Amino acid sequence: xxxxxxxxxxxxxxxxxxxxxxxxxxxxxxxxxxxxxxxxxxxxxxxxxxxxxxxxxxxxxxxxxxxxxxxxxxxxxxxxxxxxxxxxxxxxxxxxxxxxxxxxxxxxxxxxxxxxxxxxxxxxxxxxxxxxxxxxxxxxxxxxxxxxxxxxxxxxxxxxxxxxxxxxxxxxxxxxxxxxxxxxxxxxxxxxxxxxxxxxxxxxxx
Length: 206
Prior knowledge:
Structural class: alpha+beta
Number of helices: 10
Oligomer: single chain
Radius of gyration: 23 Å
Distance between the termini: 74 Å
Strand order of the largest sheet: 3-5-4
Number of domains: 2
Order of helices and strands: HHHEEHHHEHHEEHH
CATH class of the largest domain: Mainly Alpha
């Protein structure tokens, strides 16, 4: 296949997909077995769209490639999909999601130590939306579940990786950050002490 034909094929794949496509997947579909060639063609496509000042760009999201509208046209997209976009997360769910995104892996108790309120409802909502997932258990007595963000989270927020999040110290006052860290340390210590006391009580009773 000539390079120009291959470029059009890859452009078609990026246009039609509703999920980000990795270079290796595109390579496999095109029967190339050459990820570097795919990457170079995608870069060429990106340059063409940028140089033409197109309303469409090619972006890397959640480790894959996809076409997207440019941010300055988001207002019109929202108008088109107003009904669908009204299914928003509550402030509580967004708050919990932000905590998990920046502090992952993190347990429910640690989340509640930061928020000061029960967070079971927002956590369930985020799990249902597949924005967070269980990523194991913390190696302390009681082994509480730890939560982290998913690829769906990256896709929804247009991020390639969690490292693309804005630096938290540019968003939150340093004194607030210090209080959060202190609260987390205190709750972790309290959880450990409580579990140790419970375990000791169980041993005595048995």
